[in-house]
């Protein structure tokens, strides 16, 4: 019997994964009426040293088209696996050797043309030097860790599709389409059955009802399949084009909200975290230019003050579009003439009020951006139509920051070198012309606009022209300047220059000192843009990826990506905004703020992680031997506001503070003593009351309930509810002292109590009579627990157990959903979305901190958002100089929904935890409907409205 594939794996480690992989290869794109179209062999017996067993395996190998090696360190050492691989190497083609990594590492060394054997431990050394190009391989390590072995899981489905495509002899997209088609076929056949049964309505009413139910079930399955396929497509295109990924994620959620669609939404929101707006999508017309020597132009320019963006692209409207970055609104476009075939120089004044556009050969238009009115149009120098290089246009153009001067270096008739022409707005004409003596000159005005800098790239020298005196200064040699570079960019203010060689290597020069200040540490770049000299990073692009690079030109973080290479790049003088245009005409605006993915809230006092209370309403900081300072967390963009300082020398770790909703009173629990304080006067209200020793060593043990009168806390004698007006015990929730953690819901009407040792949770809810009533007790079994969290409305509780597993408890039904145990556990409280569909938890590793998302109904991990911390002293620097033990972050519920993230660097960010909000935000970035071809591919048999309103 001929076999399509043979799976070789470690029986000590990967039997379950191998079974799932074999099952997935059989099921993907299988017609529902037929047996599997692929035949994949996997032995099911122990490979003991048995001659007959090897003969049977050898027989299977001889009849197999593809070898699938399930790579792991254990498999690499397995005698039988090595024997199977050696047979394949000796007898079969290497282009049919596929690799799926179960554990360990596989790394390819592009320069050596072989695997990096210093880092690779999941492959046997039999493969050393066997491959001349990188073979097909997929990474299953995360899938194995989470035991996500279902085609309904986007990651597993994508991995199986990658391996199955060559076995089927088609591309992965086509295979995915065939799988969806089979689901649709099933749905159509069931609908046909319904139609037949309707004919027999008189005699089979009950059967027709059942058929209708089957039809709905089939349609629901088709929607589920389409949603999962769209979600998988979103994750697949995430790195290449976040805008398109957003479209796929939006349609996945629109077809049917699933765990996969929520994962796709979360991932695309994170990937678009630096995107301010996708101003123009790419055009399908670019396919007509594939293979041509140049692409139609896309040009971008940002004013030095970061207030205005101007852009145009050959595909689409033949106008220059203006976007007000401050207001987020588009202005009236300018009917400026642009170089449609090759593009041209394009520059804004410092305040964005004036735009200079190279509109033809040596021809310029000057526009008043605010009034959308042309100020001047004319030639700088003569019009060299007879020159062979006339099509190249300006070699360089510069507009002074105040818009008063315009200069250009351009070809002219009868001269081998470029001519420099300088135009004065006051005079309304060209006031200076001279030959530069070079064919490569870059121009730029310094900050005040008085001096024009001319950088001779061939000679490596710099001259300055004084616009007031009308004279040139002496040329100054730049020692070591790379001659005949491919591209030179002058920073706003012309204090620095970026020099890109023909192979893409970059150097940055200080034009004041005449010395290089940085060399390329990142390899070749297609485009680079410099902000002002005081900004500690630059913007660069390679292929379709836009990123920030530090001053050593090492990549810091990615801002976004395009499907096609980036053609033009611009950055504001303060470095806050970056714009890019790609070869297919797509235009996007990015923010360089490292906390862009959420709203940055004020934290002037610099409170650090672990200062927030568990309900997210109060932040504390103890001043040793003096007082405890109290802040409240405001709604909206209010951030942290200092409320008062309580003059008590308390131990911060063993005290608790709660504040009423209106902020008028604060309660302090310290060593069993409860005291009340007037926040407006700072004075104590009445005498403190002692209820016996409090349970020390735990934070968040005191809360005001919804009436702002009663307090709940843990004392040695039990869990008590205290009337703050009289100091009397209103109710005892438990007279036992074994409860070790107490949390209150966001609406302050529910209380969750956790016994960490017994792993038991009790949930209490405020009744109509004003007393707390126990509504759920959940026993989670043996072991221990580290934390408990409760949703805003008290209808769901989460318990983090000692092994890192998170259990989600539905309070109404008592149903418990256990999440997978992850290799990298999170810490601290979980924060729920208002509909309890999602939960978020902080995690940290040696690379930094982030937020992990959970599906509370399935227990699946939906993905993560990495968060950048600001380095000490830099404000926005890329890498914090902290040890792993110091990296920390705290999550807490935000007053209006979502969550607050407070980092060790003092950054306070509010982020959404609501798929509806994510959907709204993504619609603002990518509101266009799915292209017709993509719609037909995924949704051809389904009626699905566009997810974003027109």
Automatic annotation (TrEMBL):
Query: Any stretches that span the bilayer, and where are they?
Result: 192-212
User: What InterPro entries does its record include?
Assistant: Quinoprotein_ADH-like_sf, TIR_dom, Toll_tir_struct_dom_sf, WD40/YVTN_repeat-like_dom_sf, WD40_rpt
Question: Superkingdom of the source?
Answer: Bacteria
* GO terms classed as biological process: signal transduction
Key words of the record = Membrane, Transmembrane, Transmembrane helix
Could you tell me which residue ranges the TIR domain spans? 2-147
* PANTHER family in alphabetical order: TRANSCRIPTION INITIATION FACTOR TFIID, TRANSCRIPTION INITIATION FACTOR TFIID SUBUNIT 5
What name goes with this protein? TIR domain-containing protein
Organism of this sequence = Streptomyces qinzhouensis
What is the phylogenetic placement of the source species in the record?
Bacteria, Bacillati, Actinomycetota, Actinomycetes, Kitasatosporales
């Amino acid at each position: 019997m001929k076999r399509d594939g043979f799976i070789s794996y470690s029986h000590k480690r990967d039997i379950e994964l191998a079974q799932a992989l074999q099952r997935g290869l059989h099921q993907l794109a299988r017609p529902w009426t037929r047996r599997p179209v692929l035949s994949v062999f996997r032995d099911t017996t122990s490979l003991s040293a048995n001659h007959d067993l090897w003969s049977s395996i050898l027989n299977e190998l001889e009849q197999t088209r593809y070898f699938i090696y399930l790579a792991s360190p254990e498999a690499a050492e397995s005698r039988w696996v090595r024997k199977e691989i050696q047979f394949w190497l000796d007898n079969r083609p290497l282009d049919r050797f596929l690799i799926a990594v179960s554990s360990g590492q596989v790394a390819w060394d592009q320069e050596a043309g072989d695997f990096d054997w210093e880092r690779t431990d999941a492959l046997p050394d039999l493969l050393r030097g066997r491959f001349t190009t990188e073979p097909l391989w997929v990474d299953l390590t995360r899938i194995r860790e989470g035991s996500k072995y279902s085609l309904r899981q986007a990651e597993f489905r994508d991995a199986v599709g990658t391996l199955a495509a060559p076995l089927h002899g088609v591309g992965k997209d086509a295979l995915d389409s065939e799988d969806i088609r089979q689901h649709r076929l099933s749905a159509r056949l069931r609908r046909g059955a319904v139609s037949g049964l309707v004919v027999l309505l008189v005699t089979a009413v009950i059967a027709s009802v059942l058929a209708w139910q089957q039809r709905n079930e089939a349609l629901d399955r088709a929607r589920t399949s389409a949603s999962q396929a769209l979600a998988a497509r979103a994750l697949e295109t995430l790195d290449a084009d976040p805008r398109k990924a957003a479209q796929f994620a939006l349609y996945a959620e629109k077809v049917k909200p699933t765990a996969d669609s929520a994962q796709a939404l979360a991932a695309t929101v994170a990937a678009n975290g630096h995107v301010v707006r996708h101003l123009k999508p790419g055009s399908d017309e670019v396919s007509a230019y594939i293979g041509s020597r140049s692409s139609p132009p896309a040009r971008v320019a940002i004013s030095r003050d970061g207030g205005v963006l101007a852009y145009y692209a050959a595909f689409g409207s033949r106008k220059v579009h203006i976007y007000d970055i401050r207001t987020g609104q588009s202005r009236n476009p300018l009917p400026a003439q642009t170089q449609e075939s090759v593009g041209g120089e394009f520059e804004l004044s410092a305040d964005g009020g004036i735009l200079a556009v190279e509109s033809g050969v040596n021809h310029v238009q000057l526009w008043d951006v605010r009034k959308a009115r042309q100020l001047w149009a004319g030639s700088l120098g003569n019009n060299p139509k007879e020159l062979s290089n006339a099509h190249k246009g300006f070699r360089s153009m510069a507009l002074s920051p105040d818009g008063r001067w315009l200069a250009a270096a351009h070809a002219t008739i009868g001269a081998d070198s470029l001519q420099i022409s300088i135009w004065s707005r006051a005079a309304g004409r060209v006031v200076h012309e001279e030959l530069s003596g070079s064919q490569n000159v870059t121009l730029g005005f310094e900050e005040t606009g008085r001096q024009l800098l001319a950088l001779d790239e061939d000679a490596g020298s710099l001259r300055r022209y004084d616009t007031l005196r009308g004279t040139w200064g002496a040329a100054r040699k730049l020692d070591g300047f790379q001659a005949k570079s491919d591209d030179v960019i002058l920073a706003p203010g012309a204090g620095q220059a970026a020099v890109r060689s023909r192979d893409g290597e970059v150097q940055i020069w200080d034009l004041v000192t005449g010395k290089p200040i940085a060399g390329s540490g990142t390899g070749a770049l297609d485009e680079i843009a410099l902000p002002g000299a005081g900004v500690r990073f630059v913007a660069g692009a390679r292929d379709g990826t836009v990123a920030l690079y530090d001053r050593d030109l090492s990549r810091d973080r990615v801002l976004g990506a395009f499907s096609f290479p980036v053609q033009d790049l611009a950055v504001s003088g303060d470095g806050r905004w970056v714009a890019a245009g790609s070869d297919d005409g797509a235009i996007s605006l990015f923010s360089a703020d490292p906390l862009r993915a959420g709203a940055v809230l004020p934290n002037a006092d610099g409170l650090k992680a672990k200062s927030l209370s568990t309900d997210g309403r109060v932040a504390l900081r103890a001043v040793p031997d003096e007082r405890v300072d109290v802040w409240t967390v405001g709604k909206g963009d209010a951030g942290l506001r200092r409320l008062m300082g309580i003059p008590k020398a308390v131990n911060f770790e063993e005290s608790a503070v709660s504040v009423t909703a209106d902020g008028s009173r604060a309660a302090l629990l310290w060593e069993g003593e409860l005291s009340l304080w007037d926040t407006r006067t700072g004075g104590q209200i009445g005498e403190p009351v002692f209820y016996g020793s409090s349970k020390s060593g735990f934070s968040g043990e005191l809360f005001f309930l919804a009436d702002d009168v009663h307090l709940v806390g843990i004392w040695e004698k039990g869990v008590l509810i205290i009337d703050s007006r009289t100091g009397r015990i209103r109710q005892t929730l438990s007279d036992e002292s074994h409860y070790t953690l107490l949390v209150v819901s966001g609406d302050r009407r529910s209380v969750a109590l956790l016994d960490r040792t017994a792993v038991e949770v009790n949930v209490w809810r405020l009744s109509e009579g004003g007393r707390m009533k126990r509504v759920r007790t959940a026993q989670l079994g043996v072991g221990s627990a580290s934390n408990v969290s409760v949703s805003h409305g008290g209808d769901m509780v989460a318990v983090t157990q000692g092994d890192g597993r998170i259990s989600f408890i539905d309070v109404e039904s008592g149903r418990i959903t256990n999440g997978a145990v992850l290799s990298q556990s999170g810490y601290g409280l979980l924060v729920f979305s208002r509909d309890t569909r999602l939960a978020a938890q902080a995690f940290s590793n040696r690379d930094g901190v982030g937020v992990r998302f959970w599906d509370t109904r399935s227990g699946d991990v939906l993905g993560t958002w990495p968060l950048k911390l600001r380095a000490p002293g830099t404000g926005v620097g890329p890498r914090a100089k902290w040890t792993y033990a110091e990296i920390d972050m705290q999550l807490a519920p935000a007053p209006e929904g979502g969550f607050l993230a407070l980092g060790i660097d003092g950054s306070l960010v509010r982020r959404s935890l609501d798929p509806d909000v994510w959907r709204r935000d993504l619609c603002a970035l990518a509101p266009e409907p799915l292209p017709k071809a993509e719609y037909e591919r995924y949704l051809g048999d389904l009626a699905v409205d566009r997810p974003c309103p027109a």
